[in-house]
Amino acid sequence: MLNKLSILIPAYNEAKTIHLILDKIKAIRLINDIKKRDYYRR
Question: Are strands 35-36 and 4-5 parallel, antiparallel or unpaired?
Fold first, then answer.
């Protein structure tokens, strides 16, 4: 059963707005105890 979700967001020249997308993703609650991996690569 799926219990983890990784979201990859390609971004180029998005320094001014990427935080808006990341904030929305952080705020989402997933069903069935699926966990989000809290890892950000720079």
Answer: parallel
